Structures are given as structure tokens and as C-alpha cells.
């Protein structure tokens, strides 16, 4: 009987074990990004901007030209890249501390200018690489190494909802929040990234996808329990959906 | 064929020099006293087929510079002291990632908000790296509008030659004054610049990574040694102006606008029979230490004059160590010096023999 290959690793994804912890979902998001790059046929002209945090090593796994940005500055670096090379496909990949705390000004203004770039934002409610400190997206009551009693609304403020905030800005063509905790949500994530990439390729504007993801190590939960937390706790706080789609607005 | 002279401010000469050198990406944020540069480039850069972005901050403009530099495009950002402090993060990353770019600092008074008048208070920040880590940038100090043009023009070549940020350290005086400037023929764009390292999208080749993170054992040490070697090789770029130094007993060492003002004082004292000369470093890094040391070896004495409380004087003293020393006269930022202000200090230093 002839074997038929029905599921393969995207060629642009390195065939190496990642440094990510067991149960971390960066790998899943990397794969979806890699699939979309191949489907659009833009691998050869892609320039990625990796950010500070666990995903700084993006370039070890997605085999495209990459520049490393200082903490939070990926959208500014990506602006410089895209302005210098308009023919390139440019995406930045950022975590929640990077994007929603130290890099808040850069993401807001790149989005508002409508830079023709795509930003993948992985929100796991915690600083991962530095060892589990409170992030701007940490949930009320969530314990971290810098809010050991749990995040307190009165003391630290509440978690920031970046997809909703970004959607209010004029230059944004597409903005969505998804998760990768179920097959259905993974498929939805792929649709969202595909649409965000298309807004750049079609010169429509800025594309943004926030992806809820696990951090079992710093949540101090098993992989399975971490995945369950996405559905039980995070999605009620960070609702999934498309917050802006310029194409749909044009139709209406 | 000589180009027609144009009558422009130092700030505008910087903008024109950048355009003529093939700079096609400019990123900036408003701050006095350098606003003529972004204002001029907001229309001139798009007219030249380039990109102009008014960034949300100097943090962002410097990081946009990093991104454009990674693509091998000639790019520039400009600011003044408080803004340049904000750029130090990106400049350190550019040095660590070996990215070429031009950063202009039209020095104003500090610390803090200081004032909007001229100052040389950013000398240390400019020549000792400025941000975190063990790195240097090439530093060019113009004293006239023509030098603003010429040094900006040449800064891009130097940035690409060494794959390193180049800092133009001007000040409010040279930025705001107006003089005739002779422009050079505009350089054609070089699509091959940085062909062996820049990001273009990988195409058929292996992917390239431009980064400053080196975690493997020994990797960072190797990178720092490589950078150190590169900084040493920059000694080949030393530039300075020596005026009446041959028979001088006392040499005034001053840079930028202050060097030019001190030259007037030196000229006037010469006419009165004083054996004084001027040594004006044009590259502040690399510092012309061999040249100063040679003068010290001839038995000459030194007086360093700066528009601050004493920064370059450290480098002068290091250059002549073991042979002689340098006196110092600091003219305080917040005031505008004239040639007369340097007359008494130079006379006193001559007598101090």
C-alpha cells in the first residue's frame, strides 16, 4: 500500500527541538505563522522582527531573515524595516510584557500610522523569560513573583485588553483575539493570522492578532491544567473575536 | 565643475548633506534646537523618493533607524541632548548588532531639561559609548556649516565601512547660524551596499540574523573582542585641524563651535606676539591622541577649552600622560561665548609657563 503524507512540517520551520517549556504554546503559534508564510508564498521576501522574551529565539525556528529588536521596540524596528524595504513582508512577534508594557507607545503608534506590517501578540499573562513576574495582562487574583498575594485591582490596576485598544486606532485594517487551546481555536487562529497577513499583502493597513497562550512553568500548572485555564479563566476575561476588519466595514 | 554655493543654516546643511549622500530614510521627533532638520526633510525626503517618519518618541525614531539600517539603507535620525539620551538603547543595540546609521546630536544645555542654548555637555556620552555595554561610535564634530554638510555626507560612508553607528556631535551655535555652503555632487544610490549582511528576505540563500544576543559559552567575549578590534581600526579615520601649532608654546585644544571661536582668539593673540596655536579635534572618537602626544613630545603645553565643566580635557590628559598636562577653562553652558571670553584664560595659561 502506498503511503500518503497528509500532515507535514512546513519547510520554513526548523526541524529542531525548541527551548520552550513543555506545554508552552509558542511552538503552536510558530507553526501556524510558518504555515501562513508558506501559503502566501512570502517566505523568501519575509523579514521578521523578534522581540525580547522567550520568543527572542524565533529565528532559531522560523527560518527567515530576522532582526532582533530591543525590548518593546519591535513595531518601531518593523516600521524602519518596512519603510526601507517596501517589497518585503514584515512581521513582528511579541509577548505581553514586551508589547503591552514597555512597548505600549511603539505598538499604538505603529498601528495608528497604519504601518504595512503584521504583529503577532502572544498573551500568556506573565513575564516568562525573566521568571514569572506580573505582566500588564496578569489577571486579577493571579499570583506572580512580583504580586505574590495575587494581582490586586486597587493596587496594580486590571489586565489590559490590547486587541480592544488596538482596534480603536485608525490605521488598523484587521485586529482579532484568538486562542490555541482547542482544535477549533487553532483553526480560528490560523484564519486570523491569514487575514492579518493579507492586510499587509493587499496594502490595506496594519494587522494585529492577539493569541491567548499558556505558560505552565510560571503558572505552576501542568500542561493540561494550563490549557484548561485558557478556556475557564482567560477567555472570559479576554473574549475571542474580530474587533476590526476593514474589509467587512467596506461591505457594510 | 563646482557646485553653486548655497546660504543655509548648519541644521539645513546636515539635512542637505544627508540627502546628497544618498540617505533615503529619516526618522525624527521634534526638539529644539534642531527642528530645521525634520522640517526640511519632511518635504525634501519624499521628494527625493525617500521615507520621512515623525516618530512617537526618540526611543522609537532610533529603533526605526535600527530597522532601516538592518536593510542596508542609508538612514538617519537627529535630535538634541535629552532626545539623544532616549536613543542610547537603540544605539547600543546597533553597535552590538553591527548596524550602520547616522545619529545627529545638536547639543543643548543640561543636565535634565537644561536650556535650548548651546553646550558641549554631551561629550562623555558621545565618545564613551553612551548606552550600556562596551562599545564606541565614530563621533564627528563640525565647527562650521560647511563641516555640518561635509561630515554628514561622509558619515554614511564611515557607518557602512565599519558597520557601526556614526554620531555627528554639533551644537546649537553651528546648527542655528547661517553660512555659505558648497554642496557636493549627489552620490548615486548603491544597491550593493551591505550586500553580504543586510536583510532583503532570504530568497534562495540561508536566512540572515542580525542580533546582539550571544548566549553560548565564549560567544559574547568573542563578539566584544571583535568589536574592540574594529574600534581600534577606526584610528585610521582621525581628523583634526592644527592652526599655528608648529612654533606654538601653548596649544589651545577645543572642538566644534568652541574650537572655531577659540581660533579667533588665538589669531588675535598671535598678532600681539603670543606664541599660541589651536588644535581642533574633528573626530572625537577616534580621538587624535597620537597627534597631541607628538606635540607634547615637542615640549608644548596645553589649555583645553570647552563649553562644559571639563570632559574632553580628560582625553587630552590621557593623550599627553607622562609628558605634560593640560590646563582647563570651562565656559558655562547657558551663556554664549565670544573670542574675548577666551582671551584672559589663554593669556594666563601662556604666563603660567
Automatic annotation (TrEMBL), chain A:
GO terms for biological process: cellular respiration; small molecule metabolic process. The keyword Nucleus does not apply. The keyword Oxidoreductase applies. It comes from the Bacteria. Residues 60-210 form the Thiamine pyrophosphate enzyme TPP-binding domain. Keywords: Oxidoreductase. InterPro entries: 2-oxoacid:Fd_oxidoreductase (IPR051457), THDP-binding (IPR029061), TPP_enzyme_TPP-bd (IPR011766). This is 2-oxoglutarate oxidoreductase. It comes from Solidesulfovibrio aerotolerans. One of its GO terms (molecular function) is oxidoreductase activity, acting on the aldehyde or oxo group of donors, iron-sulfur protein as acceptor.
UniProtKB/TrEMBL annotation, chain B:
Gene3D superfamilies: 3.40.50.920, 3.40.50.970. Residues 248-341 form the Pyruvate:ferredoxin oxidoreductase core domain. The keyword Transcription regulation does not apply. InterPro entries: 2-oxoacid_oxidoreductase (IPR052368), PFOR_II (IPR033412), Pyrv_Fd/Flavodoxin_OxRdtase_N (IPR002880), THDP-binding (IPR029061), Transketo_C/PFOR_II (IPR009014). Keywords: Oxidoreductase. Residues 17-185 form the Pyruvate flavodoxin/ferredoxin oxidoreductase pyrimidine binding domain. GO terms for molecular function: oxidoreductase activity. Pfam families: PFOR_II, POR_N. The keyword Oxidoreductase applies. This is 3-methyl-2-oxobutanoate dehydrogenase subunit VorB. The gene is vorB.
Amino acid at each position: 500500500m502506498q503511503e500518503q503524507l497528509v500532515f507535514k512540517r512546513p519547510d520554513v520551520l526548523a526541524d529542531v527541538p525548541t527551548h520552550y517549556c513543555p506545554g508552552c504554546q509558542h511552538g503552536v503559534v510558530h507553526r501556524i505563522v510558518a504555515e501562513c508564510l508558506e501559503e502566501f508564498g512570502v517566505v523568501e521576501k519575509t523579514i521578521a522582527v523578534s522581540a525580547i522574551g522567550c520568543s527572542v529565539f524565533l529565528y532559531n525556528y522560523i527560518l527567515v531573515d530576522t532582526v532582533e529588536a530591543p525590548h518593546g521596540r519591535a513595531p518601531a524596528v518593523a516600521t524602519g524595516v518596512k519603510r526601507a524595504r517596501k517589497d518585503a513582508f514584515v512581521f513582528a512577534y511579541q509577548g505581553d510584557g514586551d508589547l503591552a508594557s514597555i512597548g505600549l507607545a511603539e505598538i499604538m503608534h505603529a498601528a495608528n500610522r497604519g504601518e504595512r506590517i503584521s504583529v503577532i501578540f502572544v498573551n500568556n499573562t506573565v513575564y516568562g523569560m525573566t521568571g514569572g513576574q506580573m505582566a500588564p495582562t496578569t489577571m486579577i487574583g493571579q499570583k506572580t513573583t512580583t504580586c505574590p498575594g495575587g494581582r490586586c485591582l486597587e493596587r496594580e490596576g486590571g489586565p489590559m485588553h490590547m486587541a480592544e485598544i488596538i482596534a480603536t486606532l485608525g490605521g488598523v485594517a484587521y485586529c482579532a483575539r484568538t486562542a490555541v487551546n482547542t482544535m477549533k481555536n487553532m483553526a480560528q487562529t490560523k484564519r486570523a493570522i491569514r487575514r492579518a497577513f493579507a492586510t499587509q499583502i493587499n496594502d490595506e493597513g496594519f494587522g494585529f492578532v492577539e493569541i491567548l497562550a499558556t505558560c505552565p512553568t510560571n503558572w505552576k500548572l501542568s500542561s493540561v491544567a494550563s490549557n484548561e485555564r485558557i478556556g475557564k479563566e482567560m477567555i472570559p476575561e479576554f473574549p475571542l473575536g474580530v474587533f476590526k476588519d476593514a474589509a467587512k466595514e467596506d461591505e457594510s | 565643475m563646482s557646485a553653486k554655493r548655497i546660504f543655509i543654516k548648519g541644521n539645513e546643511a546636515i539635512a542637505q548633506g544627508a540627502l546628497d549622500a544618498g540617505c533615503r530614510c529619516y526618522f525624527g521627533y521634534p526638539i529644539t534646537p534642531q527642528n530645521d532638520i525634520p522640517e526640511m526633510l519632511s518635504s525634501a525626503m519624499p521628494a527625493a523618493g525617500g521615507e520621512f517618519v515623525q516618530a512617537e518618541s526618540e526611543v522609537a525614531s532610533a529603533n526605526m533607524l535600527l530597522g532601516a539600517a538592518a536593510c542596508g539603507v542609508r538612514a538617519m535620525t537627529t535630535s538634541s541632548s535629552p532626545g539623544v539620551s532616549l536613543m542610547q538603547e537603540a544605539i547600543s543595540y546597533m553597535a552590538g548588532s553591527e548596524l550602520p546609521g547616522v545619529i545627529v546630536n545638536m547639543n543643548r544645555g543640561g543636565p535634565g531639561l537644561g536650556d535650548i542654548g548651546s553646550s558641549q555637555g554631551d561629550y562623555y556620552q558621545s565618545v564613551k559609548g553612551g548606552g550600556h555595554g562596551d562599545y564606541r561610535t565614530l563621533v564627528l564634530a563640525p565647527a562650521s556649516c560647511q563641516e555640518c554638510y561635509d561630515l554628514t555626507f561622509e558619515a554614511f560612508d564611515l557607518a557602512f565601512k565599519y558597520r557601526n553607528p556614526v554620531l555627528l556631535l554639533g551644537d546649537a551655535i553651528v546648527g542655528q547660524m547661517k553660512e555659505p555652503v558648497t554642496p557636493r555632487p549627489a552620490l548615486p544610490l548603491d544597491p550593493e551596499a551591505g550586500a553580504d549582511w543586510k536583510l532583503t528576505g532570504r530568497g534562495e540563500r540561508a536566512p540572515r540574523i542580525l542580533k546582539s544576543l550571544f548566549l553560548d559559552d565564549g560567544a559574547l567575549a568573542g563578539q566584544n573582542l571583535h568589536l574592540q578590534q574594529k574600534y581600534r581600526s577606526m584610528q585610521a579615520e582621525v581628523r583634526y585641524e592644527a592652526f599655528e601649532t608648529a612654533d606654538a608654546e601653548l596649544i589651545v585644544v577645543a572642538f566644534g563651535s568652541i574650537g572655531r571661536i577659540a581660533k579667533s582668539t588665538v589669531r588675535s593673540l598671535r598678532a600681539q606676539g603670543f606664541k599660541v596655536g589651536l588644535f581642533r579635534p574633528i573626530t572625537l572618537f577616534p580621538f587624535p591622541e597620537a597627534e597631541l602626544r607628538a606635540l607634547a613630545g615637542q615640549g608644548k603645553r596645553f589649555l583645553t577649552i570647552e563649553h562644559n565643566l571639563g570632559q574632553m580635557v580628560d582625553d587630552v590628559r590621557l593623550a599627553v600622560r607622562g609628558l605634560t598636562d593640560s590646563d582647563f577653562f570651562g565656559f558655562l553652558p547657558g551663556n554664549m561665548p565670544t573670542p574675548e571670553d577666551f582671551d584672559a584664560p589663554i593669556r594666563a595659561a601662556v604666563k603660567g609657563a
